[in-house]
Amino acid sequence: MGFRPFVFHLAVELGLTGWVRNTPAGVEQELQGTAAALEQFDQRLHQELPPLAAISQLEQHDLPEQPAESGFVILPSSTGKHEAQIAPDTALCADCLRELFDPADRRYQHPFITCTNCGPRWTIVTGTPYDRPLTTMAEFPLCPACRAEYQNPANRRFHAQPIACPACGPRLSLIPEHPQPLAQALELLRQGQVVAIKGLGGFHLAVDACNDRAVALLRQRKQRDEKPFAVMVPDLAAARQLAELTALEERLLAGPEAPIVIVRRSPGDTIPNRTADSGHLPQIAALVAPGSGWIGLLLAYTPLHQLLFQDSGLIALVMTSANASDQPMVCTDDEAVLQLAGIADAVLTHNRPIQIRTDDSVMRVFQGKPLFYRRSRGYVPRPIGLPFDCGQLLAVGAELKNTICLTRGNQAFVSQHIGDLKNEATLDTFQQTISHLSQIMEIRPDRVVCDLHPDYLSTRHAEVLGLPVVQAQHHHAHMAACMAENGLEGDVIGVIFDGTGIGSDGTVWGGEFLVGGYAEGQRAGHLKPVRLPGGDAAAREPWRMVLAWLYQPYGDDVWRLPGLPTLNMAEKQVFQAMLERGLQSPLTSSAGRLFDAAACLLGAVSSNRFDGQAGMALEALAETARTAAVLPPVGVLTATAGPFQLDGAPLLRGLAEGLRFGVDTAELALGFHQAIAAAVLEGCGILRRSRGFDRVVLSGGVFQNRLLTEMVYNYLPKAGFTVYSHRLVPPNDGCIALGQAAVAAHHA
Fold it and tell me: Which residue of 13, 486, 589, 721 has the lowest C-beta tally within 10 Å?
């Protein structure tokens, strides 16, 4: 990351003698000079750090004078006990971008141009200390010109492990083979075909984002009917034409992490036609993000991505993870050929191996700060500081949106996004990630923590490791994760709204009010449990949840409600038995399933083809409303002993009655959001009166709903509550591993 050259130049400038070197424990330096020069060095060390460098801890000691010392040198790296940290992969820097398009530069149009300030790190490292022989660049010996740069402390590429040039570096190739791989890939994209492109942590599937037929073709082949695609553009100028960007959104897009940022679309979604062959302003295809006022944007963050836009006529590309349905993102040529057959027309690849697959990070801005939806490339493996010591433990996370977490003292290393642990391929990636992260960080866990659910593949993995196992309830882990990243101690109210998680009573939870801290999260309130007709099928078919919530108040008339299918008498009797006798219908308190029911009633969705689709559609509908319909509040059921309950049936009946009287569906959707936010306030008020707590943490995938979360943030502080949300990990199940680690650290 350019830290040692920075120290070298600073020391020489200030007339200091001594040395600097990498060690497995961090950077070690010895400096000698006047008191004034040493003090100035200390100040500038913090103020002028290179772009990728960060000082997490600094120890200083006085040393005896070294009379024979002269000059300042960079010593070779030492070996020993490892406590160092590897930098994340980083977007192409401005200096390398300038050289990439400079015909006079020897790396002109080199797809792998990099320096100490940018390029691959985490995805190519194979061991520590971080030196070239322990990266996937080891198989590319440096040519004399590159070696001279690598060995020159005054050069920007001094000890930049991934550097190379056209003479000695990796090379592009195309499958099927073609003598001009990049030119041919661009021609295929212009023709509306699908090209798989190898990036830093895996392959993307790319099509021309302005070509309606190409986007439709990609959806058809990938069997991805409605989930939004991310769009890559070359620079901020193009991004500004597509979206109404805030200053923070621009900083995130153009920052070294280069995540996908979910931003509000501009009217028309037009961007300048850089081919200048007409006055036409191309539009992003409607199928990129159907029915949404938002779009996921990212800038071209590698030199290869930049070359895709140079004089190609392409001005925006769909870039979505290259994988078959429910499989991990592919990261090798063999995987690409095998898994993408029938999806990609060609594969643009190269011969620099990817050590660990790492997907793009996804975030949006909420309340003036970044909010992760997926924490991955650009951020992993940065540690998250904790307000307590965890020792060394492994947390294996949840089943959906899985991440794992390894701890070392008060540092938590949360892995990149792994995916849903539903098949052997994703389980292999999960196991590889544990092995890689523990090897690189040299963490040897003495405990493992997992979910209560006995059938999760992560739980089964934990049980065969031969380590003491700690179990953490799913929603308690959510609460603990939000507390940990906010540095909270003591007791709080945890409002945890998500789709599913097994509770301590064996039922399916998901609309929870917990009280407590890291050691214990007591269930103090929840949504009223209803049946989950058909189990997991109810998450895919939201009409089943309409039936579950409204069968009791409506009886057989429930089948006349909007969104319910036409069934014969025998089929209706089957569902009646499910609801009355619980056949294949476990109880659930899921807030996610309540949102599903509302979305179905209002015609926002007919099915959930991807996780959270109904909630997203309901939010999008509500955002189009000018005013909110007034709806019955969520019913509050209190008991002298045990948790209070919030009954969603009156609210859903209000939606049904509103439809009967012709109330606008968008107004009803907005009213539904307001009613849920008011119910959160009501529940927190009950707990403050009974427990005295006024700090509230919000977690769970439902709080990815920007509209709902902003309403909660509006209601609770006005009532005297202090509200905390996620900033360093997602509110969805991507935070579970961090929360599990926090729970295990306080386990007796």
Answer: 13
Q: Same domain, yes or no, for 340 and 422?
A: no
Residues 428 and 478 in one domain: yes
Distance CA 481, CA 736 (A): 7
Q: Rg of the chain's alpha carbons, rounded to an integer?
A: 27
Nearest to 130, CA basis, from 140, 120, 139:
120
Residue closest to 710 by CA, chosen among 619, 613, 614: 619
* pTM (2 d.p.): 0.91
21 and 65 housed in the same domain:
yes
- In this structure, is residue 100 part of a structural domain? no
Neighbours of 537 (CB within 10 A): 12
C-alpha dist (Å) from residue 113 to 4, 203, 377, 681: 21, 19, 19, 53
Find the domain containing 12 and state its range: 3-74
* Residue 275 banded pLDDT, cuts 50, 70, 90: very low
Using CA atoms, how far residue 96 sits from 109, 114, 300, 542, in Å, is 10, 6, 13, 50
Q: Examine residue 117 and state whether it is found in any structural domain, yes or no.
A: no
DSSP 3-state of 622: helix
Query: What CA–CA distance (Å, rounded) separates 405 from 299?
Result: 29
CATH value at residue 659: 3.30.420.40
Write the CATH number for 181: 3.90.870.10
Using one digit for the tens of pLDDT, what is the confidence trace for 487-545?
999 999 999 999 999 999 999 999 999 999 999 999 999 999 999 999 999 999 999 99
From start to end of 214-366, where are the E strands? Answer: 230-233, 260-264, 294-299, 317-321, 346-350, 362-366
**Same-domain check for residues 674 and 712:** yes
Torsion angle of C-alpha atoms 144, 17, 83, 141, degrees rounded to 10: 0
Specify whether the CB–CB gap between 659 and 601 falls below 8 A. yes
Q: What's the structural domain count of the chain? A: 4
From CA 496, how far away is CA 502, in angstroms rounded? 13
Confidence of residue 79 (pLDDT cuts 50, 70, 90): low
Strands 26-32 and 17-23 turn out to be antiparallel
Residue 224 CB-density burial (10 A; 0-12 exposed, 13-18 middle, 19+ buried): middle
Tokens of 746: 């306080």
Q: How far apart (Å, rounded) are the C-alpha atoms in residues 724 and 722?
A: 7
Residue 628 belongs to some domain of the structure: yes
CB atoms closer than 10 angstroms to residue 431: 14
- Residue 144, in any domain of the structure: no
Where is 593: in which H helix or E strand? helix 591-601
